[in-house]
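Holo prediction — zinc ion.
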Amino acid sequence: MKTCSMCGEEFELKPDKPGFANRCPDCSAPEATAPTTKEKMDADERKAASEANEARRQAMRNLLYRKDS
Ligand SMILES: [Zn+2]
């Protein structure tokens, strides 16, 4: 068991868990909480987040187009 560095909850660290090794799955989620207490978001994190958003937008757009036509 590990203790989340964000919320303090204990969680089970899975080897293939995406995100941070010291955060629970909830706090590893890109949009879990606003990064108010976060000192900095490193470039990789920011890049991953924006790529995820872009991918989501793209998927949404594809869905809409498919529905329209
Ligand atoms: Zn947490």
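READOUT: The helical segments are 25-28, 43-68.
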